[in-house]
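Why do we care about 3D structure at all? Because function follows from shape, and shape follows, mostly, from sequence. That is the central idea of this module. The next example makes it concrete: a single protein chain, its amino acid sequence, and then its structure expressed as C-alpha cells.
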Amino acid sequence: QVQLVESGGGLVQPGGSLRLSCAGSGIIFSDYVMGWYRQGPGQQRDLVATVSSTGRTVYTDSVKGRFTISRDNAKNAVYLQMNSLKPDDTAVYYCRAARFLEYWGQGTQVTVSS
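And the structure:
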C-alpha cells in the first residue's frame, strides 16, 4: 500500500522556521510530482509548493522567497523548509504524490503564534 507520512509540524513564533518532512513508501518517488498543500480552519485546501520529477518547482505567491520545497528520491522523501513564518501560515499541511493516481498524507499541524 502507498503511504505518505508527514512530520515536523508544531508551534512556532512569528518569524521562526520549521522544516516539514514527508516520508513515502509503496511508490517510486522519482515517477511522481510531489507537493505540499495546506488547509486553514474553514478554508479550502490550497497549493503551497510542488516539485516535479525533474526538480522543477512551483510556489504559491504568498510563500515565495520564504519556503523551499525539495526532494530526495533515494530516501523517498520530500521536504518543505519554512522560514519567516507568519500567523497566516497557520494550517494543516499535507503531502501529496501524483501521477496516474494521487495520494495524500494525514497532515501535520503548523501553528504560528506568539
